[in-house]
Amino acid sequence: MTASFEGAPRSEQPVAVVGAGLIGRAWAIVFARAGHPVRLHDADAATMAGSLAYIGERLDELAGFGLLQDAPAVVLARIRCEADLADAVRGVVMVQENIRETVQAKTALFAQLDALAPPDAVLASSTSWLPASLFTAALPGRARCLVGHPTNPPYLVPLVELCPAPWTDPQVMQRAHAMYAGAGQTPVSLSREIAGFLLNRVQAAVLNECFSLFEQGLASAGDIDKVLKDGLALRWSFMGPFETIDLNAPAGVKDYAQRYGQQNRDTLADAPPFGWSADTVARVDAERRAQLDVADIGKRSAWRDRRLMALAAHKRQAPLS
Asked: What letter does residue 69 receive in the DSSP assignment?
């Protein structure tokens, strides 16, 4: 089987999104917004049934912030729900998988995808923790498999991490990079597999220190949150930590390291790893519940997404330099 859209512009080539939960629906928005015909599939009929209505609501919100080039109805019309997996992947140039995070489930599904999808189609997994080598080793087409880990929700936070298995073809990595970039994402490529990829490792390091500071009684969870949201994160929303320190010393990174490297080493020399103790987690949770009832998390998440839409609209208008 070969892709039937070989002569089409990249933005018009069909993409399959397998798994229609929140991440799958978000990926459908990403690709359809960029002009791709999207084939959305989920083995659960109930999940599929609510997909288009949910996506339509998100598209209306995006349009309200000026984040769609086309009318919401036009973008939504590019998405077609397919009950049969074979129909979903027929003729596509890429498959984005989004099912549950178990090796067994992904191994079974990728065996189906490898058998059903066109042999030149890229097979990408949205997994946030599992390396592709755990579920693609036995596939005849394993060279076209990789991890394409998004940041939630990908239609608002564009980072996507591309992590190859040891056998992933470098040209497949390049094709995937071009597909994601063409869809408006910000792809970053790892050279090899590592637990947690990049984003989760950086997040884990920050969480480790934040929980440890709280566990030592140095500040409330609310004040530690402010250190990020009203401090570091303001700069980090438009530049990374390397550029940040490059600008924080007159002569750049080397100068920063000479001035502050020893202080950084001393600060973390006795930093204890956080063991995710149940007591500390419970105390952080209690502080959060005093601020936000569990029943209101969905509403607050929707508020977060609207703030991300406003930030995305601002960053789209802001100059790069």
From this structure: S
